[in-house]
Automatic annotation (TrEMBL):
One GO term describing the cellular component: cytoplasm
SUPFAM superfamilies reported in the protein's UniProt record: Bet v1-like (SSF55961)
InterPro entries linked to this entry: Bet_v_I/MLP, Plant_def-hormone_signal, START-like_dom_sf
Name listed for the protein in its UniProt record: Bet v I/Major latex protein domain-containing protein
Family: Belongs to the BetVI family.
Alphabetical UniProt keywords: Alkaloid metabolism
CDD domains for this protein: Bet_v1-like (cd07816)
Domain Bet v I/Major latex protein: 3-150
A single GO molecular function term of this UniProt record: protein phosphatase inhibitor activity
Transmembrane parts of this sequence: none
GO biological process terms, semicolon-separated: abscisic acid-activated signaling pathway; alkaloid metabolic process; defense response
Length: 158
């Protein structure tokens, strides 16, 4: 069983500024600092393809944690993809769980943060597809949006 979910939010900052956050480890570090569901995050790599994030979630969350790998970082198209490579969704019968982060330029001063997840679940675990939710990537997008707007306001004030 294959599924896809997406979330978009417009931000009044240039696409290049949004990509400076999304296309680097800055987004992972922001998430680690701001999302209360993450108990621990270990980063292995420089933010490029092959970087691994080892995530441990606080107790009471549906997943205890997982490892995800950056499988695509395209600075020209402003697209980053990660895939779960160990634990988490894979233990629930998923054969694929991919998050895609895309920055789409609207004009010189605004862009769209498009976040999506793609997943594939074994037929005998199809009931677990309900664990694939857009909530987390939507929360990351809102967190990124607020961070970008706050930084833009600070720059504009100087």
């Amino acid at each position: 069983m294959f599924g896809q979910l997406s979330h978009e939010v417009e931000v009044n900052v240039p696409a290049s500024e949004a990509w400076e956050l999304y296309g680097t480890l800055r987004l992972a570090k922001l998430v680690r600092e701001e999302l209360s569901v993450i108990e621990k995050m270990v980063i292995e790599g420089d933010g490029g393809i092959g970087t691994i994030l080892d995530l441990t979630f606080v107790s009471g969350t549906p997943l205890s944690g997982y490892r995800e790998k950056f499988t695509k970082v395209d600075n020209e198209k402003r697209v980053k993809e990660t895939e779960v490579i160990e634990g988490g969704y894979l233990e629930l019968g998923f054969t694929l769980f991919r998050a895609r982060f895309e920055i789409i330029e609207k004009d010189n001063d605004s862009c769209v943060l498009k976040n999506s997840i793609e997943y594939e679940v074994k037929e005998d675990a199809a009931a677990n597809a309900s664990y694939a939710k857009i909530d987390v990537v939507a929360k990351i997008a809102e967190l990124a949006k607020n961070h970008l707007i706050k930084n833009k306001a600070a720059k504009d004030a100087h």
